[in-house]
Amino acid sequence: MIEAPDGHEGAGFFATSLEKVVGMARKNSLWPLPFATSCCGIEFMATMGANYDISRFGSERPSFSPRQADLLMVMGTIAKKMAPIVKQVYEQMAEPRWVLAMGACASSGGIFDTYSVLQGIDRIIPVDVYVPGCPPRPEAVLDGLLRVQDLAANESLRRRNSPEYQELLASYNIK
Fold first, then answer.
1. CA separation (Å) from 66 to 10, 13, 97?
2. Which domains does the chain have, with CATH numbers?
3. C-beta separation of 60 from 147 below 8 A
4. For residue 125, with 0-12 CB atoms within 10 Å meaning exposed, 13-18 middle and 19 or more buried, which class applies?
5. Rg of the chain over all Cα atoms, to the nearest angstrom
6. Are 126 and 169 a contacting pair, CB within 8 Å?
7. Residue 21 burial class via C-beta count within 10 angstroms: exposed 0-12, middle 13-18, buried 19 and up
């Protein structure tokens, strides 16, 4: 038996809400799916290395299966022919899922303002965090991961079922 603050024995009590416990679990167990197409992928590899050690943040297990990942990290130039694949990967991920656009190319097309390059992945899927740079330093990648962790920790359990969120997904033609 656990002793209650008033001195009586009881079954115990919770000092926090269920949402905070779930948020803490989500925050500390993000499994990234790296979708690297160019030089930003090299910076992600450096972030995974011993000097920066992304495992300190609970993200040491990159998942290369969308069904086992909850953080899509899009890095590098996305050609328009690649856009349907990125969208399909996003759709295959289970809820809740977050997206991090890493580098100038994934965020806005970068220096490639051409007919064949997608001018930002936010044209096909919703993006939660943008990491600037060309390519961004590993410190910036870790900062972006910390921002996603803050979103995961503080997101309401009901947000994903809200009409606003469903409307956002519908605007991208995502089920």
1. 44, 38, 10
2. 32-171 (3.40.50.12280)
3. no
4. buried
5. 19
6. yes
7. exposed
Residue 40, annotated as binding a ligand = yes
Residue listed under structure tokens 């690297």: 36
Question: 138-154 and 18-27 are packed helices; what angle lies between their axes, rounded to 10 degrees?
Answer: 160
With H, G, I as helix, E, B as strand and everything else as coil, classify residue 129: strand
Is 134 part of any known ligand binding site? yes
Q: State the helix-helix crossing angle for 40-48 and 138-154, rounded to 10 degrees.
A: 80
Per-residue pLDDT of the chain (175 residues; tens, 9 = 90+): 445 555 555 555 556 688 888 888 888 888 999 999 888 888 888 888 888 888 888 777 888 899 999 999 999 999 999 999 999 999 999 889 999 999 999 999 988 989 999 999 999 999 999 999 998 999 999 999 999 999 999 988 888 888 999 999 999 988 7
Selection from 102, 81, 99 nearest residue 90 by Cα: 99
- In sign, the C-alpha dihedral spanning 139, 74, 96, 174 is positive
Instruction: Classify burial at 90, counting beta carbons within 10 Å of its beta carbon; exposed 0-12, middle 13-18, buried 19 or more.
Output: buried
Tokens of 38: 């160019």
Determine contact, residues 52/138, Cβ cutoff 8 Å: yes
